[in-house]
């Protein structure tokens, strides 16, 4: 994600990468060829030019030319580094999940409040064009009230992440993967009164999960997320969202290393029409980081990247895991 953000900043007006920090000497020298992931370009040789380089993150906090710290570290380090950066007078954008537990997440939110600095959590999904369309449609009321929806997000086992299933390091599929949809559901519908989840385990974490988010009797929201052991499809996500006057559906995958759109964003209207909205080709990560830059420049929090919203998403994930473990619905208090 550090590389993804680095590349995205090149497309963000008014932002400049002033420094990078990593303990990896090869990466500090610009050799990023060992970077791997289930989306985005492969790592390559980077010309870091006049960018300052640090091996110790604490030294970054002492650089007066830096306004915003972008934390793309393993989740277990999010709280420590973010709190220190906020206390040092820096604004922070931190990759999702905000933290691995709600206690650390609350500590991060409190540190932002006490320092009067912005805590922004990089949940990119609201900026992905198909999801952004749904978000704007819900906000506008054009298609009437939201009735519900179903979301899916499934990946092949990320073999390059040796500690992916460690609840104290990365957090596993629910906290690291499904949290995208938990965040988006929270953004559209608010917090449910309870969650009812089933799933299969992988040690102390849930490997695959199905959740019903319990709102009022007429609002039906579900999500499926997790890991499969077949490497041919490294990633897939999609949704069906139901409004009073339309249904919106979308499905996309990475199959054998190639992006495949099974169903482009499609709107099924109440009048029986099938519409394919024209979407912008904006890089979602650049749009996300541009929103963070806008927040820093204006001094006003981002509605989509707010730390409190990310805390709610993490809370949902923890309650869903608890529901799987207890075999019953769990209330959200």
Describe the structure concisely for a colleague.
With 333 residues, the protein is of the alpha/beta class. It has 9 helices and 14 strands. Helix 2 links the parallel strand 1 and strand 2.
Per-chain topology:
Elements: H1 2-9, E1 19-21, H2 25-28, E2 52-54, H3 57-61, E3 68-71, H4 78-87, E4 91-95, H5 102-115, E5 119-122, H6 129-140, E6 146-156, H7 172-189, E7 194-202, E8 205-214, E9 220-228, E10 233-243, E11 246-255, E12 258-269, E13 274-275, H8 284-298, H9 307-326, E14 330-331
Parallel strand pairs: 1-2, 3-4, 4-5, 6-9
Antiparallel strand pairs: 6-10, 7-8, 7-14, 8-9, 10-11, 11-12, 12-13
Helix pairs in contact: 1-8, 4-5, 5-9, 7-9
Structural write-up:
By secondary structure, the protein is of the alpha/beta class. The chain is 32% helix and 29% strand. It has two domains: 2-122, NAD(P)-binding Rossmann-like Domain (Rossmann fold); 125-281 and 306-331, Dihydrodipicolinate Reductase, domain 2, CATH 3.30.360. The protein is built from nine helices and 14 strands. The strands form three sheets. Strands 13-12-11-10-6-9-8-7-14 form a nine-stranded mixed beta sheet. A three-stranded parallel beta sheet has the order 3-4-5, sandwiched between helices. Strand 1, helix 2 and strand 2 form a beta-alpha-beta unit. The longest helix is centred in the C-terminal third of the chain and has 20 residues, at 307-326. The radius of gyration is 20 Å and the shape is globular. The two termini are 33 Å apart.
């Amino acid at each position: 994600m550090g590389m993804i953000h680095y590349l995205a900043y090149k497309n963000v007006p008014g932002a400049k990468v002033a420094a990078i920090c990593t303990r990896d000497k090869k990466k500090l020298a610009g050799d990023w060829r060992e970077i791997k992931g289930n989306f985005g370009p492969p790592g390559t040789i980077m010309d870091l030019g006049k960018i300052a380089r640090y091996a110790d993150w604490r030294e970054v906090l002492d650089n007066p030319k830096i306004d915003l710290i972008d934390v793309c570290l393993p989740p277990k380090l999010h709280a420590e580094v973010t709190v220190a950066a906020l206390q040092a007078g820096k604004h922070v954008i931190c990759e999702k999940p905000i933290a691995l537990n709600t206690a650390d997440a609350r500590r991060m939110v409190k540190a932002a409040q006490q320092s009067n600095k912005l805590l922004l959590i990089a949940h990119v999904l609201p900026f992905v064009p198909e999801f952004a369309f749904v978000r704007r449609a819900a906000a506008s009321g054009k298609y009437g009230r939201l009735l519900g929806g179903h979301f899916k997000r499934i990946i092949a086992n990320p073999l390059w992440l040796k500690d992916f299933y460690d609840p104290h390091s990365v957090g596993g599929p629910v906290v690291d993967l499904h949290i995208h949809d938990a965040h988006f559901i929270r953004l559209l519908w608010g917090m449910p009164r309870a969650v009812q989840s089933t799933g299969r385990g992988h040690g102390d974490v849930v490997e695959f999960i199905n959740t019903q988010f319990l709102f009022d009797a007429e609002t039906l929201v579900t999500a499926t997320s997790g890991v499969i052991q077949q490497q041919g499809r490294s990633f897939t996500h999609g949704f069906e969202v139901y409004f009073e006057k339309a249904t919106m559906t979308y499905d996309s995958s990475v199959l054998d290393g190639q992006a495949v759109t099974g169903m482009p964003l499609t709107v099924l209207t109440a009048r029986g029409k099938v519409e394919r909205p024209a979407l912008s080709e904006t890089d979602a990560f650049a749009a996300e980081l541009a929103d963070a830059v806008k927040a820093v420049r204006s001094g006003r929090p981002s509605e989509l990247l707010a730390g409190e919203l990310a805390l709610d998403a993490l809370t949902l994930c923890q309650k869903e895991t608890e529901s799987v473990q207890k075999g019953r619905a769990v209330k959200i208090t």
